[in-house]
Every structure is written in structure tokens, then in C-alpha cells.
Amino acid sequence: MTMKTAVFPGSFDPITRGHVELVKRAAPLFDRIVVAVGINSQKQTLFDLEQRMQWLREVFAEEPKVSVDSFEGLTAHFCQRIGARYLLRGLRNASDFDYEKTISQLNEIVGEGLETIFLISQPAYSHISSTIVREIIKGGGNARPFLPDQLQLPARYNTTP
């Protein structure tokens, strides 16, 4: 029997409660979930790769089905390299769906049958995005309600309690 492996790709800059909730909901569907940080040299990140990888390992330390990795290049090629046949994606709204639908169709071709599984965000998390959380952090606001409990921001980004 083939192991059902899914990849949950993203920048995770930073990981949010919405990301964590999605992985936990998907865990019963797969034998293994690889939370994979995509490295895009064209994208400016707030937190470096090592920090993001450390946070992911801490957040998912108690999840035996979840592992953490990083990759460069196409997500579909990374999936092929590790033997994953599924991509896991979250949808917060109709805009997410329109974008993710197109990407999933391309990944199915490039990934030679790579299947994208969409999970709809729970209402409590549908307003959270890493982009918005980064802006709150950079602006000195309190991002704690949007971040997993295990995540400790570097001192220069301490948010107000």
C-alpha cells in the first residue's frame, strides 16, 4: 500500500493559527504531511529561513504525521522528489479560490497527476493571512492573537501585550 503524502507549501512568514488549524484538520486524511517552506529569491521575507523552519518544527513537534522541509524551484517538482501525490491548500475566500484553482490546474500538468486538496478555512481563521500579520508586526501592533502559542518573536519585534 502506498503512503499518502501531502505537501503543504508556503512561505510561512510567519506561520499563523490558520496554518496550524488547516494542518491539524488535514492530518486524518493523510499518512504524512510535509510542511514545506518555498524559497523564492524574488520575495522579500520578514523572517529568515532558519527562523521559519525552527518555528514550524516547534509548532508541529507533537504531530507525528507532520514533518518540515524547504525547497527551491517548482512545488510540483519538490512533490515528485519526495513522492507526494497531494498538495494541501487552504481557501479563505473567493479570491483565494480563483488563484488556487489556476495554480492547481498547472500543478496537475507539471506534477503529472499531482492532486490539490482544498480545505475551507474555519470562520475564526478566515481573516488571517501572513501578509496582514507581518504588517501588524512591522507596525508594532499585537500579533499574538494570530500566532501559534509556540511562536516567540525576536526581541526587535516584541508586540504589545
Automatic annotation (TrEMBL):
<keyword id="KW-0808">Transferase</keyword>
<keyword id="KW-0963">Cytoplasm</keyword>
<comment type="function">
    <text>Reversibly transfers an adenylyl group from ATP to 4'-phosphopantetheine, yielding dephospho-CoA (dPCoA) and pyrophosphate.</text>
</comment>
<keyword id="KW-0173">Coenzyme A biosynthesis</keyword>
<feature type="domain" description="Cytidyltransferase-like">
    <location>
        <begin position="7"/>
        <end position="135"/>
    </location>
</feature>
<feature type="binding site">
    <location>
        <position position="11"/>
    </location>
    <ligand>
        <name>substrate</name>
    </ligand>
</feature>
<feature type="binding site">
    <location>
        <position position="43"/>
    </location>
    <ligand>
        <name>substrate</name>
    </ligand>
</feature>
<feature type="binding site">
    <location>
        <position position="100"/>
    </location>
    <ligand>
        <name>ATP</name>
    </ligand>
</feature>
<keyword id="KW-0548">Nucleotidyltransferase</keyword>
<dbReference type="GO" id="GO:0005524">
    <property type="term" value="F:ATP binding"/>
</dbReference>
<feature type="binding site">
    <location>
        <begin position="90"/>
        <end position="92"/>
    </location>
    <ligand>
        <name>ATP</name>
    </ligand>
</feature>
<dbReference type="GO" id="GO:0015937">
    <property type="term" value="P:coenzyme A biosynthetic process"/>
</dbReference>
<keyword id="KW-0460">Magnesium</keyword>
<feature type="binding site">
    <location>
        <position position="19"/>
    </location>
    <ligand>
        <name>ATP</name>
    </ligand>
</feature>
<protein>
    <recommendedName>
        <fullName>Phosphopantetheine adenylyltransferase</fullName>
        <ecNumber>2.7.7.3</ecNumber>
    </recommendedName>
</protein>
<comment type="similarity">
    <text>Belongs to the bacterial CoaD family.</text>
</comment>
<feature type="site" description="Transition state stabilizer">
    <location>
        <position position="19"/>
    </location>
</feature>
<dbReference type="Pfam" id="PF01467">
    <property type="entry name" value="CTP_transf_like"/>
</dbReference>
<keyword id="KW-0067">ATP-binding</keyword>
<keyword id="KW-0547">Nucleotide-binding</keyword>
<dbReference type="GO" id="GO:0004595">
    <property type="term" value="F:pantetheine-phosphate adenylyltransferase activity"/>
</dbReference>
<comment type="subunit">
    <text>Homohexamer.</text>
</comment>
<dbReference type="GO" id="GO:0005737">
    <property type="term" value="C:cytoplasm"/>
</dbReference>
<feature type="binding site">
    <location>
        <begin position="11"/>
        <end position="12"/>
    </location>
    <ligand>
        <name>ATP</name>
    </ligand>
</feature>
<dbReference type="InterPro" id="IPR004821">
    <property type="entry name" value="Cyt_trans-like"/>
</dbReference>
<dbReference type="InterPro" id="IPR014729">
    <property type="entry name" value="Rossmann-like_a/b/a_fold"/>
</dbReference>
<dbReference type="InterPro" id="IPR001980">
    <property type="entry name" value="PPAT"/>
</dbReference>
<comment type="pathway">
    <text>Cofactor biosynthesis; coenzyme A biosynthesis; CoA from (R)-pantothenate: step 4/5.</text>
</comment>
<feature type="binding site">
    <location>
        <begin position="125"/>
        <end position="131"/>
    </location>
    <ligand>
        <name>ATP</name>
    </ligand>
</feature>
<feature type="binding site">
    <location>
        <position position="89"/>
    </location>
    <ligand>
        <name>substrate</name>
    </ligand>
</feature>
<feature type="binding site">
    <location>
        <position position="75"/>
    </location>
    <ligand>
        <name>substrate</name>
    </ligand>
</feature>
